[in-house]
């Protein structure tokens, strides 16, 4: 009997390049001797609902999703609600594809499909923030709303430049949040313009932002919190440090976290894997060690 593969793709992700390669990808999965069930998503939460519906009805060994980090987040959120968790394959066809850089996947979709058929299955950490899952990043502050407020039509036409332009619009309005951060026995009180808890070598399309040694299965996230700079020169220095992955800066707190809580006097909007993740004044984040299994390329 053939093993079952559920293939979910977002036809609108990135520049819709999945449409060009659909037939080659399905042929590749067929050669892997799978019986394939295919769904195209129609909008928000669709990928999550498809995963839950299909996997409650039938046994699937492999769930492959194609889209951006938002689609992957929805698929993982669905799988986390199920007792029996299938292996996940990711075909990155989104705009920035941050998480894909951790999986050593080729840029070409048919080649990435081959990796899914022959790659290495490994257990990967994910995060949970106030009951919502994230694959590689939970963030607040400067630029983070650009990740979910950039209109899809601009992403389809301009690609990653759409995010950069949307981010530039926000430069004149930096807002600081006064927060108390608790992590193990450490308590920090300060004004922050940006913060993220991440498990990725690339965030917002910028590589090295969380340092050079990011491990996906060590039970730890990198926590990075940027203090409010006092003037434009300091601000520019902080941005340069972040882009170069130089976390040894007077304005940046950076440390490894398994669990962390943040308390703010006001509601703070969060972005989870580049999508809107809700507003909170109290946040609890935990690393769920090796909670999913996903396929990655081998060197
Ligand atoms: N058919 C569809 N039309 C419009 N939006 C969709 C459709 N299917 C899914 N979506 C929504 O599109 C959003 C973004 O998708 P996704 O992350 O896959 O692509 P992207 O935003 O282009 O890529 P990236 O996250 O890398 O920037 C998700 O919130 C998803 O729910």
UniProtKB/TrEMBL annotation:
It comes from the Bacteria. GO terms for biological process: phospholipid biosynthetic process. One of its GO terms (molecular function) is ATP binding. InterPro entries: ATP-NAD_kinase_N, Diacylglycerol/lipid_kinase, Diacylglycerol_kinase_cat_dom, Lipid_Phosphate_FormReg, NAD/diacylglycerol_kinase_sf. Its cofactor is Mg(2+). Pfam families: DAGK_cat. Residues 1-133 form the DAGKc domain. Keywords: Kinase, Lipid biosynthesis, Lipid metabolism, Magnesium, Metal-binding, Phospholipid biosynthesis, Phospholipid metabolism, Transferase. GO terms for cellular component: plasma membrane. SMART domains: DAGKc. NCBIfam families: YegS/Rv2252/BmrU family lipid kinase. Belongs to the diacylglycerol/lipid kinase family. This is Diacylglycerol kinase.
